[in-house]
Specification:
Radius of gyration: 16 Å
Oligomer: single chain
Shape: globular
CATH topology: Alpha-Beta Plaits
Helix content: 40-55%
Number of strands: 4
CATH class: Alpha Beta
Number of domains: 1
Structural class: alpha+beta
Largest sheet: 4 strands, antiparallel
Number of helices: 6
Strand order of the largest sheet: 2-3-1-4
Order of helices and strands: EHEEHEHHHH
CATH architecture: 2-Layer Sandwich
CATH superfamily: Transposase IS200-like
Distance between the termini: 43 Å
Length: 187
């Protein structure tokens, strides 16, 4: 049965990728994570795409991207191919590094964007990696809410604008939403 065609039109997307199950980790150390982010920033610049948020876990990653028509497949091919080459070269491996093609889901409106961002930011807490979202070093969350320096390739302006329509202090409202006891229940 053939795969359904990808949605390649312009818009906001939640993108996710898992490492190959035969390989214990997609990122073995911080150098791997930095190398991935370097390739990712390059792909964002080359495809004129915007990273709204990212979160690198041990075996997978999540991205929220704003892309133009046709840019999502080009960006994901570029970053995944470049990172796989690095990974195989570094660890003396050959073949696939990723389990499957990247997954993507169109973000349909501002509430969906807020819910998706909350899910991505809370992913390290849910997985037991850290006690709070801002403590995860390999996520854009702390930079988005002003608790750390924001990565140069991250632009959360559409996210903050969505929160700003619901609250007078978008950053405080976003922190309440993400760090609150029951995520996804509104502001």
């Amino acid at each position: 049965m053939p795969r359904r065609p990808r949605d390649t039109s312009a818009g906001l997307f939640h993108v996710f990728v898992h490492g190959l199950w035969a390989v214990p980790t997609l990122y073995r150390d911080d150098r791997d994570r930095l190398e991935f982010l370097r390739h990712f920033a390059y792909a964002m610049a080359k495809t004129n795409s915007i990273c709204v948020a990212y979160c690198l876990m041990t075996s997978h990653y999540h991205l929220i991207l704003k892309v133009d028509d046709g840019a999502l497949p080009a960006a994901m091919h570029m970053v995944n191919r470049r990172y796989a080459r690095h990974y195989n070269r570094t660890y003396g491996l050959r073949g696939h590094v990723l389990f499957d093609r990247y997954g993507s889901r169109r973000i349909v409106d501002e509430l969906d964007l807020l819910d998706t961002f909350t899910y991505v930011a809370r992913n390290p807490v849910t997985a037991g990696v850290c006690p709070e979202p801002a403590a995860h070093r390999w996520s854009s969350y702390a930079g988005t809410v002003g608790l750390a320096e924001r990565s140069s390739f991250v632009d959360p302006s559409c996210l903050l604008a969505a929160v700003g329509r619901l609250a007078s202090d978008p950053v405080a409202a976003l922190r309440r939403r993400v760090e609150g006891p029951v995520p996804g229940t509104g502001l």
